């Protein structure tokens, strides 16, 4: 209270003091979701809302990443022009290249994602929604967009929200739907690796391409090799998956059935066969799926 009643430079320096990780009291309040403490520090003590810790995170970034909606709303509605940084604060990237939206998406904080996107749409500088598109398109150092990290972590509700915004503002080029990260994976390939069947189906429905991974495996082949039954069943419901059923990997000649047989996954083999997989196809070594199974 004494600090609040004596709001001069000396006391502002005090409330903006940092710990060994560069966190101020405002960082701590934002991280803990303590709106009461946060408003006191800012309104009464003149604490800064734009200082970054050693990881490059602002208090707003932490509020978004930890899913504290009331704190984030306070930042967005009351502190937007605190230091005349506006858009830069809302879409600031930390040292890993993660934006507040990306941090929220990776943890499945769907309401936080909606708040951030709505705020950016309302406060966009131009008719082309360039700032909003930038928020959707910002990728971290792994080359993953907010959509990609939501897909990778299986956050279906968050994926739904991001796909709606992608449809509205990135629909022409489907920028993030087919974006390849540093591991040469698209969001669909990631979903296929991690058995997120419903998400994979939604990506395909939105127009995801059958891009191969770095080893030449199609999305169906990836799912078959990884034992991701849910994904395979979803993909084979539509022409997208059926068209990949007997496609051979260019470098090895292996089919999804061959890969499933090689891993000893009887359930996967039966699913593929029941949908018309050709057991007579051989790879470049002349091996059939049966021979792969008995090796």
Automatic annotation (TrEMBL):
<dbReference type="Pfam" id="PF12796">
    <property type="entry name" value="Ank_2"/>
</dbReference>
<dbReference type="InterPro" id="IPR036770">
    <property type="entry name" value="Ankyrin_rpt-contain_sf"/>
</dbReference>
<keyword id="KW-0040">ANK repeat</keyword>
<feature type="repeat" description="ANK">
    <location>
        <begin position="21"/>
        <end position="54"/>
    </location>
</feature>
<feature type="repeat" description="ANK">
    <location>
        <begin position="142"/>
        <end position="174"/>
    </location>
</feature>
<feature type="repeat" description="ANK">
    <location>
        <begin position="252"/>
        <end position="284"/>
    </location>
</feature>
<dbReference type="GO" id="GO:0005634">
    <property type="term" value="C:nucleus"/>
</dbReference>
<protein>
    <submittedName>
        <fullName>Uncharacterized protein</fullName>
    </submittedName>
</protein>
<dbReference type="InterPro" id="IPR050663">
    <property type="entry name" value="Ankyrin-SOCS_Box"/>
</dbReference>
<dbReference type="GO" id="GO:0045944">
    <property type="term" value="P:positive regulation of transcription by RNA polymerase II"/>
</dbReference>
<feature type="repeat" description="ANK">
    <location>
        <begin position="96"/>
        <end position="128"/>
    </location>
</feature>
<dbReference type="GO" id="GO:0000976">
    <property type="term" value="F:transcription cis-regulatory region binding"/>
</dbReference>
<dbReference type="InterPro" id="IPR002110">
    <property type="entry name" value="Ankyrin_rpt"/>
</dbReference>
<keyword id="KW-0677">Repeat</keyword>
């Amino acid at each position: 209270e004494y600090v609040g009643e004596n709001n001069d430079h000396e006391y502002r320096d005090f409330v903006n003091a940092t710990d060994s990780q560069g966190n101020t009291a405002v960082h701590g309040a934002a991280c803990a979701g303590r709106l009461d403490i946060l408003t006191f520090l800012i309104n009464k003590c003149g604490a800064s809302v734009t200082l970054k810790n050693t990881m490059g995170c602002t208090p707003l970034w932490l509020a978004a990443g930890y899913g504290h909606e009331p704190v984030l709303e306070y930042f967005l509605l009351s502190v937007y022009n605190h230091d005349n940084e506006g858009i830069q604060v809302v879409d600031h990237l930390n040292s890993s290249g993660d934006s507040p939206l990306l941090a929220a998406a990776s943890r499945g904080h769907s309401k936080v994602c909606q708040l951030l996107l709505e705020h950016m749409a309302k406060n966009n500088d131009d008719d082309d929604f360039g700032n909003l598109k930038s928020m959707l398109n910002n990728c971290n150092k792994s080359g993953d967009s907010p959509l990609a990290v939501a897909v990778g972590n299986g956050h279906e509700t968050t994926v739904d929200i991001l796909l709606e915004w992608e449809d509205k503002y990135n629909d022409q080029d489907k920028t993030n739907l087919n974006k390849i990260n540093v591991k040469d994976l698209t969001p669909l390939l990631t979903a296929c690796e991690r058995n997120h069947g419903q998400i994979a189906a939604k990506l395909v429905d939105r127009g995801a391409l059958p891009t191969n991974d770095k080893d030449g495996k199609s999305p169906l082949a990836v799912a078959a090799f990884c034992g991701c039954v849910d994904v395979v069943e979803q993909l084979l419901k539509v022409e997208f998956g059926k068209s990949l059923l007997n496609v051979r990997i260019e470098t090895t000649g292996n089919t999804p059935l061959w890969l499933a047989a090689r891993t000893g996954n009887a359930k996967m083999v039966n699913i593929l066969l029941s949908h018309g997989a050709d057991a007579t196809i051989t790879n470049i070594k002349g091996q059939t799926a049966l021979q792969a199974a008995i090796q």
